[in-house]
TrEMBL record:
Pfam families: Ribonuclease. The keyword Heme does not apply. It comes from Streptomyces silvisoli. Residues 1-21 form the signal peptide. This is Ribonuclease domain-containing protein.
Length: 132
């Protein structure tokens, strides 16, 4: 009888990959920190947003008018802080900061899939807005 030592190799590799994927605790892991959604990002409810952010959400829902010329422009997600999507998927809107002489650091970013994110530190960190 002729030996075929590599005959089971594809099946063994598939089992090994499945076993490692199940033990990785990656983004599909069942345990998530509280206050986070499926992708591990912190969340914030609309009622927890500052009043200026709630007003910006109302303007977005109404389609404007927006107080800043850059409101509604494409957000490039160059920081990769949001889930990766095609260019043009995200748009950003200014959340006015009382006392600031410029647009300030606060923004609402919306996605084409109707998701909404809030940052108060000029894109360093984001929270997904829930409860709309």
């Amino acid at each position: 009888m002729r030996r075929r030592p590599f005959r089971l190799l594809p099946a063994l590799l598939a089992c090994l990959i499945l076993a490692l994927a199940g033990c990785s605790g990656g983004k599909h892991s069942a345990a998530r920190p509280s206050g986070t959604r499926g992708h591990g990002m912190a969340t914030i409810t609309v009622s927890q947003l500052p009043p200026e952010a709630r007003h910006t959400l109302q303007l977005i829902a109404a389609g404007g008018p927006f107080p800043y010329p850059k409101d509604g422009v494409v957000f490039g997600n160059y920081e990769n802080a949001l889930p990766r999507e095609r260019r043009g998927y995200y748009h950003e809107y200014t959340v006015p900061t009382p006392g600031a002489r410029d647009r300030g650091a606060r923004r609402i970013v919306t996605g084409a899939g109707h998701e909404t994110y809030y940052t108060d530190d000029h894109y360093r960190t984001f929270k997904e807005v829930t409860g709309r």
